[in-house]
Each structure stands twice: as C-alpha cells, then as structure tokens.
Amino acid sequence: MNIGYARVSTKEQNLDLQKDALMKAGCIEIFEEKVSGAGKERPQLEKLVEKLRKGDILTVWKLDRLGRSIKDLIQLVNNIQGKGAELKSLNDHIDTTTPHGKLTFHMFAALAEFEKDIIRERTLAGLATARARGRVGGRPKGLSQKAEHVAIIAQQLYEDGQKTVTEICDELSISRVTLYNYLRHRGVEVGQHRNKTKFLKTELWLVAQANSKVKKSLKKCIEAIEFFILQKFKGKADKKNKGIYQLIIPYQSTKELDLTVTQIIRDIKNTGDLHNCSVELSLKALDKSGKSWK
Q1: What mean pLDDT comes out for the span 239-259?
Q2: Which domain holds residue 28?
Q3: Which of 96, 161, 241, 244 could form a disulfide with 194 if both were Cys (CB 3.0 to 4.6 A apart)?
Q4: What tens digit of pLDDT does each residue of 125-153 get?
C-alpha cells in the first residue's frame, strides 16, 4: 500500500500542496501533521510507521518533512526498511523500491559521515604523535562508509538474480574483482545458486458495489484500483468479460508469491473502503497448478 505523510510547521500553513502531490503519486491514505520539525513529538508519523507492513511504501513530498537532521532521517528509514517497507520522496528523486533509489539513499546517508571526517582530520596530528611513541590509534581496517553502502546494493542485486555480474558492475561502476570483494565482505557465498525471478500469469475476478447512491464513487473506485494497483502487475482488462483482468506477478519463491497476492487483495479492499465501496474478488493462477486466492 502506498501511504503518504504530509507535514507543515504551523497551524497557519496549508497542507493542500503536499496532499495534492501525494494523491497524484497514488497514495491510498495520507497522514497529516501540523507540528514543527524541531519538535520531538510527531504522533501521526509514529502512528504511520507503526502501521507499515511488508511491501508498503511511505511517500513524502520532500525528505525534510520526515527528519530534523540527516541522523534522524537515516534512523527513520532504517526503521521503515526493518518492517519490509520502502521510502519514496517526490521532490528529492529518492525511491528505495528501486536499486538506483537505494543506492542514491545510501550515498546520501554517507554524507552524514562528512562532519565526523572533519573531526577525525583534526586529530591526525595527535595520532601521529601517539604512533611515534609506540601507540597505534584509529579504527580497524575495513570498507569506508561510502563503499559499505555500495556493497549493500551489490549484495541485493546479486542475490535478486535479475542482472548478470557484468550488468551489476556496470550499474555500480565497479570492477568484477571489487564486486566479489564487496560480496565476501557482506558474507555472500560467491558462486552459489542465485535466485531467479519467475513470472506467474493470473486471472483476477473483481466485483465492486457502491455503498451509497453516488455512482461517481464506484467509478472512481474502479479507476483507482486499475491505476494504482493493477497497473503495477501489467493488469489488462478482458474486453469481453467485465470485471476480469489478467495480471503478471513476479516472484522468487512460493512464500513470496503468496505474500504478494495477499498484499494485492488487501490493497484492493482498502481502496474499496476508501471510496465507500464493497469489493469481492478472487485470483487464479493460469498455470497447471490452478491455485486460487480470495
């Protein structure tokens, strides 16, 4: 589910600009808050993060709506990803649902180390003096903060199995040797079987009915389901049979497939509730298994 968060600092300021952008981006639900970013208490944001589930996306107009500092922002994003959810910022062009977006954010996070680096440089003279006296200071050898973030992305791309080693190296602008060093640093067994993404063709049966006499609500409900949910899975409506759609669902394991389908069903029903409509649906696999979900 795509969930939006809008915040302004004072009660006199208006949230409409942010809300319009979030709705246009496909947010099914928007949490609103009028509180200064300098304040520690942001109950609506805390409520939103608590509600996040695997597969959800937290969308904001700009990153400064979320954090008081880079440190706070990184901590919040780690909490979001710890729940299996992702972050999207409309004006900062950061989208952690994509490999490029994850890399951008990790590179951005590396800037948080900039101030620490300056402080470290001011201590070099003292460290040199200490070494001359037989004392060794500094941190243990390892990857730099920037390289650590690139290694995280390399691990994800390698384990996803959707790109070849050459494609991963080209995307991250690193050599094959560096890639393998990063993978070993992350504890990945190089050469082991990599996951391969499969694609399942399914048929969705969908019937929606407005709970009020307003016909426009039913039309908007169907349009929202088609545009914000079904489009992600290349949903095509059956021209002969109303309410029948064909979806293509990517997955790497049966467990992941079940989780994805459960998320689709939940998002469709939540969209129906949002538009005051009742929804009945079922999904059927168009392969030999003929497996169905409701």
Answers
A1: 89
A2: 2-93
A3: 161
A4: 666 666 666 655 444 457 888 888 888 88
Its pTM stands at 0.41
Average pLDDT on 109-116 reads 53
Cβ pair 4, 56 in contact under 8 A = no
Residue 233 inside a domain? The answer is yes
Identify whether 270 is part of a domain. yes
Q: Check if the beta carbon of residue 70 is closer than 8 Å to that of residue 98.
A: no
CA–CA dist 17, 33 (Å, integer)? 14
Residue 157 lies in a domain: yes
> Which residue in 9, 36, 212, 282 is the catalytic one?
9
- Mark whether 9 is an active-site residue: yes
Backbone φ and ψ of 212, nearest 5°: -130, 180
- Please report whether residue 100 resides in a domain: no
35 and 68 share one domain: yes
Q: In whole angstroms, give the CA distance from residue 204 to residue 237.
A: 9
Cβ-based neighbours of 201, under 8 Å, separated by 6 or more: 246, 247, 248, 285, 286, 287
pLDDT of residue 117: 56
Whether residues 181 and 203 fall in one domain: no
